[in-house]
Every structure is written in C-alpha cells, then in structure tokens.
Amino acid sequence: MELSRCVTDADYEAWRSIRMAVLPYERCSTVEELRAQDSPDRLLLLAREGGTVVGSGLAGRGESADSAFAAPRVHPEHRRRGAGTALLLALAEHGSALGLPSLRVRVDDEGSLVFAQHFGFVEVNREVEQVRTVGDEPAPPSPPPGVEVVTASENPGLWEASFETFGREALAGFAVDTPLDITPEQWATSWAGDPMFLALHGGEVVGCAGLLRDADQAWRAENALTAVRRDWRGRGLAVHLKLRALEWASIHGLDEVYTWTQTGNDAMRSLNTRLGYTTRTTSVTVSHPLPLA
Ligand SMILES: CC(C)(COP(=O)(O)OP(=O)(O)OC[C@H]1O[C@@H](n2cnc3c(N)ncnc32)[C@H](O)[C@@H]1OP(=O)(O)O)[C@@H](O)C(=O)NCCC(=O)NCCS
Fold first, then answer.
1. How many CB atoms lie within 10 A of CB 279?
2. pLDDT, tens digit, for every residue of 242-286?
3. Structural domains present in the chain
4. Does the C-beta of 83 come closer than 6 Å to ligand 1?
5. Is the Cβ–Cβ distance between 226 and 208 less than 8 Å?
6. Rounded average pLDDT over 121-135
7. Which residue among 115, 117, 121 has the greatest number of ligand 1 atoms within 8 angstroms of its CB, and so is best to mutate?
8. How far, in Å, CA of 161 to CA of 205, rounded?
C-alpha cells in the first residue's frame, strides 16, 4: 500500500473517481473546485496497490468548531485489505498536526460504521438525505408582500455581504452537536449555490435557497442552504424559495434534486416531505479525540 499526496490534475481526477465510486448518489467537486479549496491545512491522498488507485482520502479543518475532519474512502472492489486503515491513520495524523482536539468522520453504511467503531469513534450527529424527482414544476405562488426574490449571480456582492446580517444567525441555528465554524470566505464560496435565490426585504437578505449543480451528472443537483431569518419565519418564504429552485430545475431539464438535513431539524425535514421529497440515505457523523492512536 502506497500513500501519496494529490499533486497533478491526473491525481485529482483519480481522487474524484474513487469519491464517485464510493458515493455515487452525491455530486463531487470538480478539479477546479478542489484546487480552489487547496490550503496548507488540507490534505488530499491517494492509496495505490501495485500501481492501481484503490482509495482516496481527505482531511482538514472541519466546519465544526475545534474539529478536524477526515474522509478515508476505498473502492468497493478493494476493501478489507487494509487501505482504509492506512488512509485513516495518515489523515488522523494530519488532523493532530493541525493541533485540533478531535476528528470527525461521516459514514453512510453499516460496514463503514463498524470500521469507525473498531477505531473507537462514537456517533455525535445524524443527517438524512431526502430526494425529490423533478417533473413539470409550476411557478410558485407570489412571495410575501414587500419581498423581492433575486439571484446571487445577478447581484454580485449581495451573498457575500449577507454573511454578517443573515449568515451568522442561519449557521448558529443548525441542529448540530457542535456549533459550526464557517469563515466569510467559506460562506462566499462553498455555501453559495448557483442558482442561489435570495429573498430581499428593504435591500437585506432575509431568506435563501438554491442548487449546487453536478458537473458529472447534469441531470441532478443538490439543494444549497435553505434558510429564513428568524423574524421572517412562518410566512411561507422557505416554501416559496424551494419551489423557485424546483421550477429552475424543471426549466433546465433536471430530473432529481436531493438535500441533506440534520435529524434534529424537524421543520426542514417536514417542509421537504410536504414538497414531495422522500428519504433515501442516513449519514452518521462519528467523532474521536486526537491523536487517534
Ligand atoms: C470504511 C472503509 C474506508 C474501510 O476500508 P477498508 O480498506 O475496507 O478497511 P480495512 O481493510 O482497513 O479494515 C480494517 C478493519 O475494519 C473493520 N471493517 C472494515 N470494513 C468493515 C465492514 N464492512 N464490516 C465490518 N467490519 C469492517 C474490520 O475489523 C477490518 O479488519 P478485517 O478486514 O481484518 O476484519 C471503506 O469501507 C469505505 O470506503 N467506506 C465508505 C466511505 C466511508 O464511510 N468512510 C469513512 C469511514 S470512517
């Protein structure tokens, strides 16, 4: 088993091919998106056996406060031969070197959960994936009076500026065990959908919903963050914004939209159910103090 850092575009493409084989139901960042997120804190690894790429790994500073995250992934045809262990140990070492006290990992299947438990990881959080088939979607009813809906791309700077006035509150409201720690740069890049629909009142963002398109599977997209400012809740704004996203998906020929929500967020999950989403996958976040060994 040989582990090496991703350096060339071919390495990044090999990394993506493992990611897509292991998680076929999720969009994978493009090479360009991966390179844009590169930083000294982030480690992308490939695991090779006899020259064949059998696994890939990712580690870095997590979005949860005071945590590193790791994602060891092994191609289904090359499991139970130690690649997962080699990747996890190298990724955990990277997390320790960042000086962070704990390591978080997401697992979507029973076998991977057993693997994680074997190293002493314990469950801290759970998310469900809900999926909506896109058909002929009608235009949504009008937004509440006084609210105008625009897209972030037509209004450069608006999404970025909403971090302080809107984003911080939205992020603080997540139903998670550990508060999220998101920088303005992350808000401006990985948290922005395209399209991203923004509800404006008096020039201020009071709600958002959007889509993260899939460069490899153009027929599907993931829902980007859906959020409504506390003082604007209960007026149908989230439904309006999500229906706008579904209408956009229909006009652009998409067949499927999927979304991940914390199990503790009953409001969002029941809203999705009301809009015709059905549950597909459950993902468990597990955590372990660092160092791992
Ligand atoms: C989890 C994963 C990385 C394991 O990769 P792997 O190369 O098969 O793991 P290893 O060969 O190093 O397994 C080490 C030990 O973990 C346990 N283990 C691993 N997979 C298991 C499974 N499916 N069921 C039960 N135990 C398992 C076993 O004790 C195994 O030792 P053994 O094979 O001698 O019995 C791989 O299944 C995967 O890519 N899963 C999807 C991605 C994911 O969830 N990653 C996060 C994991 S924390």
1. 13
2. 999 999 999 999 999 999 999 989 999 999 999 999 999 999 999
3. 2-128+285-289 (3.40.630.30), 135-254 (3.40.630.30)
4. yes
5. yes
6. 97
7. 115
8. 9
